[in-house]
Amino acid sequence: MNPLLKKLQPYPFEKLRALFKGIEPRAGFTPISFGIGEPKHPTPALIRDAVIDSLDGLASYPATLGSEPLRAAIAAWVMQRYGLESIDAATQVLPVSGSREALFALAQTVIDSRTASAAEPPIVLCPNPFYQIYEGAALLAGAEPYFVNSDPARNFACDYSAVPDHIWARTQLLYVCSPGNPTGAVLTLDNWRELFALSDKHGFVIASDECYSEIYFDEGHPPLGGLEAARLLDRGFDRLVMLSSLSKRSNVPGMRSGFVAGDASVLKDFLLYRTYHGAALSTVFQRASVVAWQDETHVRDNRAKYLKKFQTVTPMLADVLDVRLPDAAFYLWANVSGTGLTDTEFAARLYADYNVTVLPGSFLARFAHGTNPGEGFVRIALVAETAECVEGARRIVEFCRSLKS
């Protein structure tokens, strides 16, 4: 067996199951889960109808490159969303089977370990806390993950200036997540300027995970994206790719429909890898994805639902926890250290006493540079409908107050 598999850590939800093992929630409370970031809003009718209307596509093998109509629809959306004058749908856009698959496969394409030694393997830089696929992708590509801790004093941005130059020299791939999971933080133009300069100096590829980009709270100020930052800084897409998805934007996680866009040379090699990898989006879902990318009405309606929840729930929780509205995404990143409990104790006791599930922040991070930056936090995914989220928040408030009684 591949010995690199032994380097993989249990997924956060496996750790959560182990934490809850043997706990029987108190009777009288229906379960409410804020643990998994899975959209629960209904799938829009226009997408459901498009899937049904496309079922004849089940008789065809899907093209890894994706259909021309889908690439054109994605290119048009990217140009409109990020203010780009042009993007080549044929060479700078590639549909993928969800951003998760693409985030993993990209590392297998990019990492070159031929000249590395066992003592100094290639490095993949990751934010910390982070989406665990980044770590697994790095390890299975034969690289070493290097974690850059988020800093609450910097609105949970990573301090890339603290990374030693000898680490940058070994770096081949940098994962960024903006809006971030779990913090909701969005990279600024100054952040991008710094990262582009480092990429120019050291030659690494930047993979910008932007799957939460369409969940934000001010219609006049959508989150800045990597391709948009490149445009604003008058540079091309050299060594830059961004990844997005319909899962959160359009409430279709089961379609596994996303895309990668950016540097044509990177995408050319990525397409070659994916052709052998056998990852191609179903023809049925390719056709339905065209409809989804071409419609913004359902996306605005979706954002309005999240805004209502966050405006209602955040003040409730702020009375008992250190928490505030994030820049974007559908998570609250709540500091629970003021309760006198660790993040794991908080999650376990909340589940036992009130049957509410939250995810301990330490499960989403690694111990690096003397600390685990997720410790003392919990991630609260406000994915259910408003009434359920409000009830869950009410229980959390009651739980926190009970700790002080």
From TrEMBL:
GO terms for molecular function: succinyldiaminopimelate transaminase activity. The keyword Oxidoreductase does not apply. It is an enzyme of class 2 (transferase). Its cofactor is pyridoxal 5'-phosphate. Its EC number is 2.6.1.17. InterPro entries: Aminotransferase_I/II_large, DapC_beta/gammaproteobac, LL-DAP_aminotransferase, PyrdxlP-dep_Trfase, PyrdxlP-dep_Trfase_major, PyrdxlP-dep_Trfase_small. Residues 32-395 form the Aminotransferase class I/classII large domain. Keywords: Aminotransferase, Transferase. The keyword Transferase applies. PANTHER family: AMINO ACID AMINOTRANSFERASE, L-GLUTAMINE--4-(METHYLSULFANYL)-2-OXOBUTANOATE AMINOTRANSFERASE. NCBIfam families: DapC_gpp (TIGR03538). This is Succinyldiaminopimelate transaminase.
